[in-house]
Amino acid sequence: MTANFAPFTVAIGELIAHPANVRSKSPETYDPENIAHLKASIAVLGLLQPLLVQKIDGKYAVLAGGRRHAALKELVADKAAKGFTAKTKVDCRLVPDDCDVTTALSLAENVTQAPMNAIDEFEAFARMMEVDGQTPETIAKTFGTTVAAVKGRLRYGLIHPDIRAAARAKVITLDTMKAFAEHPSQEAQREVFEALTKDGGYLQAYTVRQSLKSRGVQVSDDIGAFVREDYVARGGAVAADLLEEHSVLEDAALVETILLEKLGAAAEDARMRLGFAWADAMVRYDYATMADFGRVYPGPIEPDEAAQKRIDEITAELEKLQLEMEDEGLEEDAYTALDDRVDALEEEARDLQEAYSAEDLARSGVIASWSGGKVTLHVGLVRPEDTVKEEGARGSSSNQTGEEAPDAGEISYPASLAEDLKTERAMALGAAMALHPEATLDLTLFKLVSDVLYSGMAVTQAIKIEARKEYRNHAKMDEIDETSLEQVAAAHDALDLSWLDDARAPADQFAAFRALDAGEKAKLVAYATASTTQSCFARDPRRDSLMHEFEIEVMPDIRAHWTPNAALFNRFKKAWLLKILGEDLGLAQEAVTLASSSKKEIVAFCDKLFAEPFATLTDAQRAAVAAWCPPMMQTAGVACDETAPIVETPEPDGEVAQAA
Q1: Which segments does the entry list as coiled coil (predicted)?
Q2: Whole-number Å distance between alpha carbons of 407 and 592
């Protein structure tokens, strides 16, 4: 039998509780506090979900929807609620007399559930604030949700009606509609909407956001927060949002004017404090424009007695901090705090031992720009017309920004870092071996046969060689680049392991293994051999010519399996990072600019650079970034003992696991 739950309307006063309603035995369910959110929703939007009722003794008993019924009765009793009386009719579905209660309840979900449209919810929250004077906090409490969720919906409730209508009609996506909330002015929203849709093109959220950015600056933006007080004092127009942090400073020209004034003041303050000849400001530091500028650097000076005392104090504290930072159990936040303290102390010590010459100060200056949400000072810049043309001019420490960065000293890897880099290189080599099964199979067989023949071992003894998985120790395995791990996992997923069934006898497993084709066997052997690779740096061709040549074949470029990341750069000294940027990568301008930044900022820059080389790089710089790694890690690169004072432990011979 198919139940026909006919729609009709019933006055609230004619509704009663159904004796079969399962919630009727739980009166706390209908407590006013437990239905407050339903009451608020129905008051704003009406009853969106019809009640399921059955006629009993001339009344309509609510079989499904008891909480909504309780909320309706609360609204009738609430004199402040408008439009709800005992005579107000609401939508219901009538359960026929010949339909048993069990069937009716089983079908109730399909008949009565109609979830609130997302846009309806946005508009409901906005109306509750505008008309009823509620706050995000009170709305969140009423609906049993979070303040953040309410705030998110409130923003979309104020989007221009035409744009909301387009979203309802699915002309644009919900994400695209949400993008218009970046600007609280409905007029600005409408203008952008019409401009972007006039040719009938497909509207994207990204395009909307980019177009709205030209209409002003949000007060929550770093620049907006920086200039807002002065902007308001000068009478700049503000497009107010229901939520303060999304209001917009509409006069973009005034915002830029104030920003440049504040940057100029910061540059002038630095000029007077450091003694430079001139000061200037620019919103964004333009490297192309600054390419012709030179730069001067402070030179060493003899510190006086007070300065020397402070330097000694700094040296002692730095030694103590370095010991603390070597604690492998140190939490990341604690390590970062110590590292920041080290940077501050090193900068203070440098200032006590260095100074600009009078000649350099007389022709150099400082530029302030906005970067990373704060004022950044670029000091010691020399205008093209003031640049000393003669190389090595007496008394000058200047150089062109296109030349190498200041000498940062030799890079010497600490033992703990060297061991971890060995492990990461072994993982990369293992991935390369798994991806070259034929070559790795040949290596495995060669070592097996040559070791047996060379040592005179019997064949039966050779078959008993025990392959073992190499244990690779690393201080922070969860922070290494995962490229090699993903490649090895993919190689494992591609293996045919149908023969490896514990339910089978070894002889049956062997028979199934023998039935595999040669290519599948090569993959299995290569994967097993790859997991035995020991931690090591680049092989010395004089000591291990076999593995040196093999590694060059399967891993000519370690960067195909491994990429430097923030975790690695964070373990480098600030001076090393600047040296790598300036000398190894040819980014001298960036190295000079970042010299005044914290190590944390330099690490973030390097991480982004290697994750996705910037579009502004030259071909040579891009190639350098794509190829760079610590030299002892690159197979075809410089041998370990030629780059850093690290002693390699001799590797044992005789087993596949040891040789590979």
Answers
A1: 304-362
A2: 11
pLDDT tens-digit readout, 139-176: 777 666 778 777 777 777 778 888 888 888 888 888 88
Strands of the 278-281 sheet, one edge to the other = 278-281, 364-371, 374-382, 294-295, 399-400
What's the CA gap between 18 and 25, in Å, rounded? 11
Cβ neighbours around 540 below 10 Å, total: 15
Residue 611: other Cβ atoms inside 10 A:
12
- Report d(CA 231, CA 258) in Å as an integer: 7
Q: Is the dihedral of CA 495, 498, 502, 505 positive or negative?
A: negative
The amino acid at 444: T
CB 73 within 8 A of CB 114: no
User: What is the DSSP secondary structure assignment for residue 307, as one 8-state letter?
Assistant: H
Give strand pairing partners of 398.
none
Taken in order 457, 461, 465, 466, is the CA torsion positive or negative? negative
Domain segments of the chain: what residues? 6-112, 261-386, 434-535, 553-627
Count CB-CB contacts under 10 A for residue 350.
Answer: 13
Question: Cβ(40)–Cβ(61) under 8 Å?
Answer: no
Count, residues in the chain:
660
Predicted confidence (pLDDT) per residue in 116-146, tens digit: 555 666 666 766 676 667 788 877 776 667 7
Helix (H) or strand (E) holding 278: strand 278-281
Nearest to 93 by CA among 149, 55, 124: 55
Fold (CATH) for 6-112: 3.90.1530
Residue closest to 285 by CA, chosen among 621, 607, 590: 590
Q: N- to C-terminal Cα distance for the chain?
A: 73
Q: 65, 104 in Cβ contact below 8 A?
A: no
